[in-house]
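Exercise 7. Predict the joint structure of the components listed below.
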Amino acid sequence: MSDERPEPGTVRPGGRTAKVREAVLRAAGDALAEDGFDRLDLAEIARRAGVGKTTVYRRWGTVPGLVADLLTEMAEDSLPRTETGTLLGDLTAQARLVQSTLSDARQGPLFRALITAAACDPQTADALHRFYRIRTEEWAPCVTAAIERGEIPEGTSPAELISAVSAPLYYRLLITGTPIDQPAADRAAQAAVTAAKAGAFIA
Amino acid sequence: MSDERPEPGTVRPGGRTAKVREAVLRAAGDALAEDGFDRLDLAEIARRAGVGKTTVYRRWGTVPGLVADLLTEMAEDSLPRTETGTLLGDLTAQARLVQSTLSDARQGPLFRALITAAACDPQTADALHRFYRIRTEEWAPCVTAAIERGEIPEGTSPAELISAVSAPLYYRLLITGTPIDQPAADRAAQAAVTAAKAGAFIA
DNA sequence: CCTTTAACGCAACTGGAGTTCCGTTATGAG
DNA sequence: CTCATAACGGAACTCCAGTTGCGTTAAAGG
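Solution:
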């Protein structure tokens, strides 16, 4: 009984199929940023993308499924990382990047919607975890360099330290609603570095 | 044109009305914890609560509206606060309380659902912000006491410090999916205290 | 260039979340 | 106790998100 058919879009991924995926993911990002996760209608996405709604339902099925695919694509293009020569400098740059992303008129609502979608669906959650694991690994060299320079103790976990910088900003975005401004970013970086120097992030 | 009618349940809040509210909010909490925010159906809530679905739709209208009311009720019963005599002791207790809540089989999913609902609706977001503002204020005395004892510098913002303890744990719950264990809680408290002593949370 | 069929798109259909109607219960005031 | 009406509950209805059927377009292999 080999009635297993491949995922739509995998056998002939060229030309039209790729254009459809690109248009739909772009429309999905726009709609998520504008309306949020729960008000999403796949038919509306199809209309925006100039694509038949049947196609969207057939290839992605559900809103979380579509968001998971969007996250997979977002994980592919990486961010420029600043090298300032000090841990505080590097992590302040990271904090300010997160700050400007989360307070951006499009990106802020988009990230909130992505996290929301992940909270509702295991498959999307996996995609989100992968996305942040990749982003964290991209910043890890800052930490290992600081260890080599002797700024922070050996055994400090890069992932723990990097997360500690972002966490307070996401906490504002999702929990308290306090504005995510540059002082908040600088404080997050400063606090994380101070704690790291004292050995708080040794796994 | 005074065709403004009061919210249902405000004119005769006694007996039956109160019982209905209690039953519905309890059912809503159960359903949120089990199924999550997006799979919520007000008719299902009504069934669980042993109440007509018309009643639920009339009084709360939408899922976010119901969640907002649930948050308002949750904000009313407060938590026992531990007093250990040191800032690290108090904040470790706080971190462990958050840790055990978020990793609890019922409470973890419930909080995730509440935060999700708030991300989808402004009214619910207000209710969530109020909930956490109240919880933060309940813990603030730990911080002011520590300032008086001279453990941390004057001008340290209680809200900033308290948030810094919780943030890494919520970051795990919502973003990375890393397990929320006791070492993580202890590390969060330790890092926050270290940073606070160095003056990282002076507004 | 020709053939096969994956993938798309239109239009008709379906199921269930949310609404409306109206009769019933019981709260709170006098 | 009695009365007016706030609030509840069952059932029928509406509307649209999501599905299905089928004909059309174009990707990939020869």
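Discussion. Residues 11-17, 41-43, 53-54, 57, 61-62 of chain B lie near DNA strand C (CB under 10 Å from a C1').
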